[in-house]
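Now for today's protein.

===
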Amino acid sequence: PRGNWLQLRSTGNLSTYNCQLLKASSKKCIPDPIAIASLSFLTSVIIFSKSRV
């Protein structure tokens, strides 16, 4: 799981970096589909763990 967290953190850093590039170029921040997928996955995992308890 530690490797997964590192991967998620690196993906988040990449998405924020791309977001800053997009802001500098078009003044709009459009999150990457990968970031959206990882966020939805994390939220679903949290909801599942909460409902399971």
In short: The two ends are 21 Å apart (CA to CA). The chain has one domain: 2-52.
